Q: What sequence folds into this?
């Protein structure tokens, strides 16, 4: 439905004029009104657009969109002076961002041009023929794709068992076959499976599906169906990156030091931690007692060193800019913790991570919304 | 005390001789066993209460001011937080620190037939300048000098409730309130000397009132301290009224010269007298926040125009004192940014705080820098607080706690005091 509201740039480029079929009902109404010169729309004629469920796109409509998209892509390549044949989706995105620069913060609200497959939600084509007889043999289960998938899966399991028996018969049965590597992926979630099957399934069904998959995987020789299994798995996001430990260098006097940055809200800070032996701290060239007169800020600075018990050992030279006093202190604390990593062992780094010293604070100022006085605060409510 | 000292030194040797001599040294050992208890606090405390006898080996240690000295010497002049601390701990302890010791050593060696030397304590906020000044003043007091201690020159250039045109010089303004309070405190400090010093000139206050030559200075001070025009605002000051009622010498309040002129006369007299070769006393002028004399003032005249510093009698007379054209004494001063007007917070050097005119008038002077605590001094202060049971938090007694305190306060004395205040 949102797609219909957003005039996709492809169609805009391909043809000017109205293109969305969903507007047809409305436009026809309007035209009827114009012809009859009525000023107000009578309730009998007005259809409840929401009652029809999600938008229904016909197959022809989707095909037409695809053609328009291709033509539009070639036009765009021409405009940008590039080769129409080898114009990839990334090139399209780049060109659109160039031609229609948008200052909107929400990325999804910016102009986009993507293949209609990605824009229009997948819909099932008509499931029965002209005589009313359904095509699929499992149509009357109600969830035909789900049950067909289960059948397929089970038949694969049976195949594998047959294969096993054959191997046993030949005497070549062995337990240690190549395992499918499942570490870097996860099963599809229920929602993703629904999207794949283009129909709703219940959570029971989903659990059954996963159970059957697991059963398949528990058998030896499951690597026969590796491709099939991996189709229903998604790669995990890259694990929490190993903390980048800044490299300690030695300056000309032979003193080991390390540099790192930190950020909090709008403050940026950078810290040079020297392994001198005095506990002197300089912030932006001033004494830190003078720069942070408030005790709380100094406590924030102290926390990483005190936690590891290394208070008097290091010399800090900090620069910080932006934000207020609290966010500057927070930024410095993060920078100090990061710089300290290079002087610590693995176990100590882990304790620091668990203490939350290495996590950048994601809290940023929330935007003020229209109709409200602040981000959350509403205007004073008056009864009358 | 001597036995304690002796036993402290002999402790090492006693252990050796224990096996050889049993009965004779037995008593000594018992003494040692008893005396070893107070030994822990002698690391940061010293028994030497006379500033004249303190030297480098007492650096970092606390000495207690005898209460006989404390009451008269410091009716004013100590930082407020320190006064509260004295009341809490029931004792006044000063730390022996290098700047004060340096100034005291100069005072001991100076030639008092030459013009007065000017010493200036400067340092960051809260580093102990006023305390060093008070330490030096205590030394002068023990030597029997006349102490002219102005607690804070900034108080004289701001928040003046009463500003009267001076009858001596119509262009100037008087500040009766500040002058009377100061005179009273001056009298408390120098009670024993005032009766001995005589005035050298004749001061005429009105047609009927005058102070002749040769009268004790005490009389002069009393006049100024007692007699002041009572405005409705003063009359509303309850403590002042109570004091007037109880004061035996007061025989009536008449309209007399304002006490600011008495202050001026006093200063002039003392200056002249100490310069004379036959004088039997020396004068120390201790001013805290001397940069107020050359700064700006926030006092406004009735027509809302700002008062120039030269138009204030007290300031004018004080500036005359600060000139080193007199002999037989010393001028010890401190800079202070905290009370100063229209100066940036980061300024602490003499150049910045005194300004051009101030620096030129004070020149030549001996600048003495007052830094934050050193390791040893910090340790000393920490042990003192522990000893006085001021640090209640269990973690503050650990080594880590000490490091934390050192970090958080950055070894600044006033910061440390503030942090320990709620531990």
A:
């Amino acid at each position: 439905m949102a797609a219909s509201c957003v005039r996709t740039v492809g169609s805009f480029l391909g043809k000017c004029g109205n293109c969305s079929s969903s507007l047809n009902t409305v436009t026809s109404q309007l035209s009827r009104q114009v012809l009859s010169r009525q000023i107000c729309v009578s309730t009998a004629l007005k259809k409840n657009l929401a009652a029809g469920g999600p938008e229904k796109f016909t197959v022809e409509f989707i095909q037409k969109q695809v053609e328009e998209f291709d033509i539009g892509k070639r036009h765009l390549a021409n405009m940008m002076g590039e080769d129409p044949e080898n114009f990839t989706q990334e090139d399209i995105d780049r060109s659109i961002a160039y031609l229609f620069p948008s200052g909107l913060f929400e990325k999804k609200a910016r102009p986009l041009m993507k293949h209609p497959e990605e824009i229009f939600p997948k819909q099932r084509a008509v499931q029965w023929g002209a005589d009313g007889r359904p095509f699929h043999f499992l149509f009357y289960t109600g969830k035909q794709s789900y049950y067909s998938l289960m059948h397929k899966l089970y038949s694969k399991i049976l195949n594998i068992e047959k294969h096993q028996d054959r191997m046993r018969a030949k005497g070549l049965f062995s337990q240690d076959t190549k395992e499918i590597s499942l570490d870097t992926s996860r099963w599809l979630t229920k929602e993703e499976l629904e999207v794949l099957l283009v129909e709703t399934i219940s959570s029971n069904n989903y659990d059954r599906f996963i159970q059957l998959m697991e059963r398949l995987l528990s058998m030896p020789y499951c690597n026969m169906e590796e491709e099939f299994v991996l189709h229903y798995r998604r790669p995990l996001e890259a694990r929490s990156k190993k903390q980048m430990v800044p490299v300690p260098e030695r300056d000309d006097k032979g003193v080991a030091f390390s540099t790192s940055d930190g950020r909090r809200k709008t403050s940026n800070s950078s810290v040079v931690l020297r392994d001198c032996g005095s506990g002197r701290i300089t912030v932006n060239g001033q004494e830190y007692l003078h720069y942070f007169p408030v005790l709380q800020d100094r406590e924030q600075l102290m926390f990483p060193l005190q936690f590891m018990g290394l208070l008097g050992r290091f010399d800090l030279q900090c620069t910080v800019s932006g934000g207020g006093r609290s966010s500057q202190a927070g930024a410095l604390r993060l920078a100090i913790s990061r710089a300290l990593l290079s002087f610590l062992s693995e176990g100590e780094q882990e304790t620091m991570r668990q203490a939350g010293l290495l996590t950048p604070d994601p809290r940023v100022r929330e935007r003020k919304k229209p109709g409200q006085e602040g981000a959350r605060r509403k205007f004073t409510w008056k009864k009358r | 005390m001597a036995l304690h000292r002796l036993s402290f030194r002999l402790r090492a040797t006693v252990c050796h001789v224990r096996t050889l001599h049993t009965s004779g040294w037995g008593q000594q050992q018992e003494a040692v066993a008893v005396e070893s208890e107070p030994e822990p606090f002698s690391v940061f405390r010293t028994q030497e209460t006379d500033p004249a006898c303190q030297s480098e080996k007492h650096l970092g240690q606390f000495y207690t001011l005898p209460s006989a000295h404390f009451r008269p010497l410091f009716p004013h002049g100590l930082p407020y937080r320190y006064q509260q601390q004295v009341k809490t701990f029931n004792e006044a302890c000063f730390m022996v620190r290098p700047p004060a010791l340096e100034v005291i050593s100069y005072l001991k060696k100076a030639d008092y037939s030459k013009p007065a030397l000017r010493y200036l304590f400067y340092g960051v906020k809260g580093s102990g300048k006023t305390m060093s000044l008070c330490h030096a003043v205590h030394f002068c007091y023990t030597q029997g000098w006349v102490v002219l201690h102005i607690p804070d020159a900034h108080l004289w250039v701001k928040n003046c409730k009463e500003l009267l045109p001076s009858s001596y010089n119509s262009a100037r303004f008087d500040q009766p309130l500040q002058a009377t309070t100061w005179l009273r405190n001056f009298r408390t400090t120098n009670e024993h000397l005032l009766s001995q010093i005589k005035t050298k000139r004749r001061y005429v206050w009105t047609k009927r009132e005058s102070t002749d030559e040769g009268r004790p200075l005490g009389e002069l001070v009393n006049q100024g301290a007692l007699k002041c025009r009572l405005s409705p605002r003063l009359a509303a000051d309850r403590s002042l009224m109570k004091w007037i009622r109880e004061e035996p010498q007061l025989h009536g309040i008449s309209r007399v010269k304002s006490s600011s002129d008495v202050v001026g006369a006093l200063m002039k007299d003392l200056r002249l007298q100490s310069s004379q070769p036959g004088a039997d006393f020396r004068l120390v002028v201790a001013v805290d926040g001397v940069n107020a004399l050359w700064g700006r003032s926030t006092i406004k005249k009735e027509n809302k125009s700002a008062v120039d510093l030269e138009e204030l009698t007290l300031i004018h007379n004080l500036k005359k004192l600060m000139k080193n054209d007199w002999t037989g004494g010393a001028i010890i001063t401190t800079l202070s940014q905290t009370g100063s007007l229209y100066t940036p917070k980061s300024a602490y050097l003499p150049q910045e705080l005194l300004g051009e005119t101030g620096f030129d008038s004070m020149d030549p002077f001996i600048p003495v820098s007052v830094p934050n605590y050193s390791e040893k001094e910090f340790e000393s202060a920490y042990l003192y607080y522990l000893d006085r049971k001021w640090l209640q938090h269990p973690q503050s007694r650990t080594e880590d706690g000490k490091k934390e305190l050192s970090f958080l306060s950055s070894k600044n004395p006033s910061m440390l005091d503030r942090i320990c205040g709620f531990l």
Q: What stands out?
A: Residues 144-170 of chain A form the longest helix (27 residues). Chain A touches chain B through 16 residues (CB under 8 Å).
